# Entry
Amino acid sequence: MKTFFKVIGIAVLTIVALAAIGVSWLALRKPAQRPASAERIEATPERIARGSYLVNHVADCLGCHSEHTLAYGFPIKPGREGAGGIVWDEKMGFPGRLAAANLTPDPETGLGKWSDGEILRAMREGVDRNGDALFPIMPYVQLRNLSDDDAKAIVAYLRTLRPIRYEKPKKQLNVPLNFIEKFIPQPLEGRVTAPDPNDSVAYGRYLTRIGGCYECHTPHDNKGPIEAQAFSGGWEMIGPWGRNVTANLTPHPDTFVGRATKAEFIGRFRAFANFTAANAPAAPKGRNTVMPWIELSGMTDHDLGAIYDYLKTVTPVAKKVDTFPNAQ
Ligand code: HEC
Ligand code: HEC
# Structure
C-alpha cells in the first residue's frame, strides 16, 4: 500500500511539475517574429499624402487610436488625433483591459523612439518594440495585406502627427487570452504588393482587407473571421456608441448591397462627408454607430466603386440582420 501511494504521489508531483514548466514556458514564450528592418523611410510629399489618405479614410487607424465625442457617427475629438483612445474592458464585454496605443511622435508615450522598421513590423506582423505580441483587436492579421509602399506611406504620415503626451491604461489580459495572443503574430516573408488599381474587383478586395470591412462585417468564432460566411454580418458591437450589429454586405437580393446601384452605395458614405465633432447632430435614439462612416466618407469614388464591384462578386448569404437592435 505504501509503495502504491508513493507511486501515485510521484505521478501527481510529476504532473504538477510538468504543468508548472508548461505555464512558465508559455509565459516566457515570445511570438513568432523576425528582426525589425533597419530601413529609413524617406518622407516625400507624395508618400505623406498617400499615408494621410490611408490612415484617415481607408484603414481608419485614428478611429481606434483617438478619443471620440458621442455625436452621430462617433466623430474623433479634435486635438486628440492618434493619442490613443478606445479602451476595451469588461464594460465592452472584453476579458481584461486593452487600450489602443498612442501613435503620435511623443517620445515617452508615443512612437517617437520607435524606428520605421519597428512600426512597419507592429502594423503588419503584430509584435511591439520588445517583440511582445499585440492583441489582434489591433487588426494586423488583415493589415499584413498592406503593400510595402502603402505601409511605408502610413509610417511617413504618422511621423507628421502632432505629438501628444498621453499614457494609455495598462494592458491586462485574462487567462487564457494572454497565452493565446502569443500564437497569432506571423512574420512576413518577402515583398508585399497591391493589386493594380484598374483591376476594380481585385483592388476592391484589397481595400476591404486593409479597410476593416472584412474584419467587422464577417462573423467571428474564437479563431477569427469565419471565411465561409464572409461579409454576412451579424457581429454585435457594444460600446460608447451604443449597440450595433454589423450589416450583411453580401449581394443577396434582400440586402442593401444586393439592391443598391453604385451611385447609391457611394451616396451612403457621402451623406456623412460634412460631419465633424463640431457640427455632427445627436444620433437618432439607438442609432449611433461604430461603422466609421465619417472617416470612410473621404474615400475616393474610384475606391468606393472598387469596393462595390468586389462586394458584388462575393457569395450571397441569406441572413437578416437587425443592425440597430436598440432603435426606437
Ligand atoms: C480596431 C481598432 C484598431 C485599428 C483600426 C488600428 N489599431 Fe493599432 N492598435 C489597436 C490596439 C487595441 C492596440 C494595442 C494592442 C496591444 O496592446 O496589444 C494597437 C496597437 C498598435 C501599435 C503598437 C503601439 C504600441 O505602443 O505598442 C501600432 C504601431 C499601431 N497599433 C498602429 C496602427 C496603425 C498604423 C493602424 C492603421 C493602419 C492601426 N493601428 C489601426 C487598435 C487598432
Ligand atoms: C468597426 C466596424 C466596422 C468597419 C471597420 C466597417 N463597418 Fe460597415 N458597418 C458596421 C456596422 C456596425 C454597421 C451597421 C450600423 C450602421 O449601418 O451604421 C455597418 C453598416 C454598413 C453599411 C450599411 C449596410 C446596410 O445594410 O444598411 C455599409 C454599406 C457598410 N457598413 C460598408 C462598409 C465598408 C465598405 C467598410 C470598409 C471600407 C466597412 N463597412 C467597415 C461596422 C463596420
The chain has a mean pLDDT of 95.
